[in-house]
Amino acid sequence: MSKKIKLLLTLGVIMVGALSVWLEATFADPIVAKVIAGLVAIMIVALWLFPEAGAKDDTLPR
Fold first, then answer.
1. Is the dihedral of CA 14, 16, 19, 21 positive or negative?
2. How many CA atoms lie within 13 Å of 2's alpha carbon, on the beta-carbon side?
3. Could you give the CA distance from residue 13 to residue 23 in angstroms, rounded to a whole number?
4. Burial 7-27 (b: 16+ CB within 10 A, else e)
5. What is the mean pLDDT of residues 46-52?
6. What is the per-residue pLDDT for 58?
7. Mind listing the pLDDT tens digit for each residue in 16-32?
8. The pLDDT of residue 55 is above 80
9. 0.85 surpassed by pTM
């Protein structure tokens, strides 16, 4: 996956996560807002840390 796509996904996760955290902290439970913030951080780290899933390329000569 190209870095441009990862950057767009990261920005989308940040925007949706920030909105969710704000809504939870304002109108509901602040503890849930902290959990959502933690999940957003984990999702962003996982997006950049782990490689893209897919079929392995077994074209190496034997």
1. negative
2. 3
3. 15
4. eeeeeebeeebeebbeebbee
5. 86
6. 64
7. 999 999 999 999 889 99
8. no
9. no
- 3-class secondary structure per residue, 5-58: HHHHHHHHHHHHHHHHHHHHHHHCCHHHHHHHHHHHHHHHHHHHHCCCCCCCCC
Euclidean distance between CA atoms 57 and 26, whole angstroms: 49
Give the other-Cβ count within 10 Å of 35's Cβ. Answer: 13
C-alpha–C-alpha distance, residues 3 and 22, integer Å: 28
Cβ contacts of residue 48 below 8 Å, gap of 6+?
Answer: 6, 10
